[in-house]
Design a protein that fits this description.
Blueprint: H1 5-9, E1 14-16, E2 19-23, E3 27-33, E4 43-47, E5 51-56, E6 59-65, E7 76-80, E8 84-90, E9 102-104, E10 107-109, H2 112-130
């Protein structure tokens, strides 16, 4: 169980015209396909608490108000294999009830099925964090798991 939870359990991606985005309890990942041979000096990326702007070679690819707030100083972007930009945003609110339903306020929303799968995954990730001796990466969950699932923290151990 040495690999992180998201590596063992996979990701629940939301496809977009430019790539995909997905999330964990703590982070939002954005993967943007760019023309092969893109150089870092061609990339302009602005990451703010509630706003993102990305352009390559002067062409805007992604811009708008994020669904929720992030920690500005911890956001990063990398250019991988000169054909993919990966942006990692650190969520301000890191509980399982904070499942982003879209990347931007009014754009790139997850369809209902994907949204449901994202919430299930965040709930299992929360259970994993609360119970480090168990492996929830392949677990199935049913019932009321919206808003992070049931809260067992008040139960006696």
């Amino acid at each position: 169980m040495s690999a992180p939870f998201e590596e063992r359990s996979g990701v629940v991606p939301c496809g977009t015209p430019w790539g995909r985005w997905y999330q964990t309890l703590e982070e939002v990942f954005i993967e943007v396909r760019v023309p092969p041979g893109t150089r870092a000096k061609d990339v302009r990326c602005s990451l703010q608490s509630r706003h993102i702007a990305l352009s390559v070679g002067g062409q805007e690819l992604l811009q708008g108000k994020l669904f929720d707030s992030t920690i500005t100083d911890e956001g990063t972007w990398t250019l991988e294999d000169r054909k993919l930009i990966r942006i990692v945003l650190m969520k301000t609110n890191r509980d399982a009830g904070n499942c982003w339903t879209s990347l931007l306020e009014n754009e790139y929303a997850a369809d209902p099925w994907v949204q449901d799968q994202m919430q299930r995954k965040l709930t299992l990730e929360r259970f994993q964090r609360e119970n480090p001796g168990f492996d929830f990466s392949g677990a199935e969950i049913s019932g009321n798991y919206s808003k992070g699932g049931p809260d067992f923290s008040s139960l006696e151990k």
